[in-house]
């Protein structure tokens, strides 16, 4: 009887959820059209160049020129070095201050939290053109307000044309970028702090851990995954940066290339500037190198750093 019943049982077939593919198809097509296909075409174009007036496959010749030619190599390594400095300033200034601000805003007895949060995040919503133009006016040694403000506090002698000096221009532009985008790490860390269960905080208070000691010993380890995400977003954003430096210092990223990063170097290479003609093949080569740098940084985070931080997740 049991064998007959078992033989007559038919497995239940799960319905094919074809509607999921229908809803995903438009997004997939749009993403493919504006992201995947241009990326593939850029990678392909980096292996071609114009020979005798016609496109020809040249293999890695463009990369050899980019890294080995004295002029191309000098400009590329200068832009890469400046990009590393640009990223380091954001990691050492923007993110720590953003974490500190989030910790202050998350204190339970602080008043006007909404006002402070909005005021700090507001520059993030401004256009980079507006931010660059405003700070050029502020820091101008001729008509800027910075010399007057520093005179009011007795620091006029410390003012210098920071945007016009090769040794201070890059750091100055980096600090302007920090001022504009410091609200992003602040809000992400603030949200991570608010997501910590109250039971954990109450247990720490019962053990006598309060104040900043509670933040360093309890909260900070729990928000390390959020800090890791902020760090990789900062890396990707900085190595894709272009707009603010272009607005403040122009396409030449002056003075004397002191603020030139990979984004501005790519712009001049691909589109040309003034008397310099654009080179699509070399521009695609620079873009491919930028993509590989970002891919290496993201892969390092995903396969090494993120695995070590999972132990702090709930």
Key descriptive features of the protein:
314 residues; mainly alpha; two-stranded antiparallel sheet; 15 helices; 2 strands
Could you explain the architecture of this structure?
- This protein is an all-alpha fold.
- Helix content is 70%, strand content 3%.
- It contains 15 helices and two strands.
- It has helices at residues 2-8, 18-45, 61-68, 70-105, 113-125, 128-139, 146-152, 169-181, 183-194, 198-206, 211-222, 224-239, 243-249, 262-271, 280-309; strands at 48-51, 54-57.
- A two-stranded antiparallel ribbon has the order 1-2.
- Helix 3 (61-68) packs across helix 4 and helix 4 crosses helix 14 (262-271).
- It is flat.
- The mean pLDDT is 88.
C-alpha Rg, in Å? Answer: 26 Å
Question: Quick one: overall form?
Answer: flat
Terminal CA distance: 50 Å
> What are the low-pLDDT stretches, counting only 5+ consecutive residues below 50?
none
Portion in helices = over 70%
Q: Mean pLDDT score, rounded?
A: 88
The profile of the biggest β sheet is:
2 strands, antiparallel
